Amino acid sequence: MLLELKKVKKYFPLPQELFQKEREYVRAVDNVDLTINAGENLGLVGESGSGKTTLGRIILKLYPATEGAVFLEGKDITSLSNKEMRPLRKNIQMVFQDPYSSLDPRCTIRNVLNEAFVLEGKVVFEERIKRMKGVLRAVGLSVSSLDKYPHEFSGGERQRIAIARALIMNPKLLILDEAVSSLDVLIQEQVIDLLKELQDKYDLTYLFITHNLRVVRKLCQKIAVMYKGKIVELAGTEEVFSNPIHPYTKKLLAAALDYKANYQEDEFEIK
Ligand SMILES: Nc1ncnc2c1ncn2[C@@H]1O[C@H](COP(=O)(O)OP(=O)(O)O)[C@@H](O)[C@H]1O
Ligand SMILES: [Mg+2]
Q: Which of 5, 68, 109, 271 is the most buried (most CB within 10 A)?
């Protein structure tokens, strides 16, 4: 098992009103159990605000969980200090939605990629350059990209650069948070094909976060459907497509496959 989440919760406190007795919370992630096996991509789907990004950030330890535990290859990483986490951190990398804001416009691609090495301490110059060129080629960009700036690339190319940056550390798990959502459909397909290629080459496993079920089908063996902080359905991809159980899953599917599903809005409420 590559990753396991046990009863993970993340509650964000809401601003407290004067005279209000009890503090209220947004239950962004609410009691999530989830496992990811090595080599088995998981699509985490759900509408905006369902808690997908928060879950990704907890796995990366960018947020502490309110409760619950995260295990990486069987090791409980929940309460590790930054120092203890350091040698493990490179194993999990994340690629975000917006390649425009995630790449510093003042940095050349060489600088962008070079920054990724901070996680690894001393890596000699020649070795760095060799690895930078290696990942650039792997994502289908030329090595001359090293001396260019982010604005000189298209949206799809920038996302390739973000993927290259994540690959430098040779991660085991790559979390892609709406990583193709802002791209045109055709470019989306190209990036998905690239991800498949990279998976074989680098022995990767993807946690693919998206609101778009159609894209998930091409890449993921399993789908977890998130709704209001909870996983409401978890099954093999084709199973979800052919026999969705939860009404919310049916709605998502209907949107993806463009038909009118037979469900009622109030059926979603979790009792
Ligand atoms: N840092 C934060 N502080 C307070 N509330 C947050 C924070 N991050 C997310 N939320 C809230 O948690 C819920 C889930 O958000 P998010 O994880 O971003 O969902 P998704 O990625 O599925 O769109 C939303 O209601 C959001 O407003
Ligand atoms: Mg999000």
A: 109
Q: Which two tokens stand for residue 172?
A: 């085991």
Tokens representing residue 122 in the block: 């001393």
Q: What is the per-residue DSSP string for 149-185?
A: -GGGS-HHHHHHHHHHHHHTT--SEEEEESTTTTS-H
CATH number for the domain running over 1-14+24-91+173-179+200-264: 3.40.50.300
Residues 6+ apart with CB under 8 A from 33: 5, 6, 7, 8, 231
Write down the pLDDT at residue 267: 59
Q: Is the confidence at residue 111, as pLDDT, over 50?
A: yes
The answer on pLDDT for 270 being more than 70 is no
Residues 6+ apart with CB under 8 A from 269: none
Q: Output the pLDDT for position 271.
A: 46
- Ligand 1 pocket test: pick from 9, 12, 50, 58 the residue with the most ligand atoms within 8 Å of its Cβ: 12
Q: What is the CA(233)–ligand 2 centre distance, in A?
A: 18
- Token pair, residue 264, equals 């009622």
- The pLDDT of residue 71 is 98
Q: What pLDDT does 107 receive?
A: 93
Å from CA of 26 to ligand 1 middle: 8
Give residues whose Cβ lies within 5 Å of ion ligand 2.
Answer: 53
Computed over every residue of the chain, the mean pLDDT equals 91
Q: To which H or E segment does residue 12 belong?
A: strand 3-13
Nearest one of 112, 167, 160, 169 to 139, comparing CA atoms: 160
Tokens coding 190: 């190209």
Give the residue extent of every domain in the chain: 1-14+24-91+173-179+200-264, 100-170
pLDDT digits (tens, 9 = 90+) for 175-229: 999 999 989 999 999 999 999 999 999 999 999 999 888 889 999 999 999 999 9
